[in-house]
Amino acid sequence: MSETKKPVELGVFLPVGNGGWITSTTSPQLPATYEYNKDVARLAEDMGFDFALSMAKWRGYGGPSKHWDVTLESLTTMAGIAEATSRIGVWGTIHTMIFHPAVVAKMVAVLDQISNGRFGLNLVAGSNPVDQGQMGLWRDLDHAGRYALAEEWITVAKRLWTEDRVDHEGAFYKLEDCMSNPKPRNIPPIICAGTSDSGFRFTIKNCTGSFMLGSNRDDFVKTGLRAKELAAEVGRTDFKTYGLFTIVPGASDKEAEERVDYYNSGVDIEALDNQTREYSSDPSVKQNTMAKRFISQGDARNSMSPAAIIGSPETIARKLADIAINAELDGITVIVPDFIDDLKTIGTTVVEGLHEAGVMTNAYAHQHG
Fold it and tell me: Is residue 315 a contact partner of residue 253, using CB atoms and an 8 Å limit?
């Protein structure tokens, strides 16, 4: 047993889109309802998870599974979950192209009151041209332009959270004697999933942490270390990195693999093709790391991320600990097929295995007093 434990936060990426995170007709067909997501968040809180995060999505991919054709709006969902919980962090997602920063500044201040300081914000600078374009809100900005808008966006929001009156005239926003009250008690934790060097630099400058995933174990380690390297260059020793992991547990490695085979037998190729087509329509797709991962999944005809961690709780714990330690992650965010039974496995048996492998979570401490 390792004597020195690496502290790592544990979070759940809520299934606010129907079908959850697996593009298949044979996977658990999760409902995109507030009640289900509230139950998941409460379960995570009961097991000692640190945070629950929801995505923002405006258009589904259709197909036989109707993948993500029904989705909950992120901030209103987290407002409800904040009221329904008492300890767990509640994090919502904002597309900076869609919402004016002054609108979100006030929304966050109210969320801060509802959650008693537990709210966090996930910023998305780009995403899918069709998803936001259907509403006429997509801006034809290149990769650098999207981060320029996002930087002006967060600058305005932070000023409104801390200043009585704001005058601002920039490339994207104009505010005249703008007042925004109430204020949040503190600027909330802010994460961003940009993992190009420009994305990392924006995140390190403006946010508290980076939200990332990898195509395999080595890619995770490389990406995590690159974020820490860039943060160290500007003296951000407090900068955090959160890895996103799709996890499929089973009583044994064989049983877990059989689950994946079954889900892949019903892979929704039509939905994946729609996803690939929409992300490929982005002229800056070569610089959009997240888009390239979605396209890669579609090309491979996989029902889930090719980086999914599959196996018994012992195997999952060993692989997760290896990545968390070697990538120097500060947080693990999980996606599972069934957000009740599978999440219980993560929050109990896998958490125990992580502790044995040298990773300390608040969930373990919570369950052991």
Answer: yes
Residues 179, 193: Cα–Cα separation, whole Å: 30
Tens digits of residue pLDDT in 150-187: 999 999 999 999 999 999 999 999 999 999 999 999 99
Cβ–Cβ under 8 Å, residues 15 and 346: no
CB 320 within 8 A of CB 350: yes
Q: What is the rounded CA–CA span in Å between residue 322 and residue 309? A: 12
Distance between CA atoms of residues 121 and 78, nearest Å: 10
Structure tokens at 27: 């996977």
Q: How many CB atoms lie within 10 A of CB 218?
A: 12
User: C-alpha distances in angstroms, 138 versus 75, 161, 198, 206, 294?
Assistant: 20, 26, 20, 22, 19
> What is the per-residue DSSP string for 107-171?
HHHHHHHHHTS-EEEEEES---HHHHHTTT------HHHHHHHHHHHHHHHHHHHH-SSEEEE-S
Picking from 360, 330, 341, the residue whose alpha carbon sits closest to that of residue 247 is 341
Give the class (CATH, top level) of 6-367.
alpha beta
For the record, the structure tokens of 242 come out as: 């959160």
Residues in Cβ contact with 82 at an 8 Å cutoff, skipping those fewer than 6 apart: 90, 111, 114, 115, 118, 119
Q: Report the alpha-carbon angle 288-14-287, nearest 5.
A: 0
Phi, psi of 66 (to 5 degrees): 50, 45
**pLDDT tens digits for 227-239?**
999 999 999 999 9
In the numeric block, which tokens belong to residue 322?
Answer: 């290896």
d(CA 307, CA 297): 10
CB within 8 Å of 236: residues ≥ 6 apart: 204
Four-CA torsion 22, 23, 26, 32, nearest 10 degrees:
70
Does the pTM surpass 0.85? The reply is yes
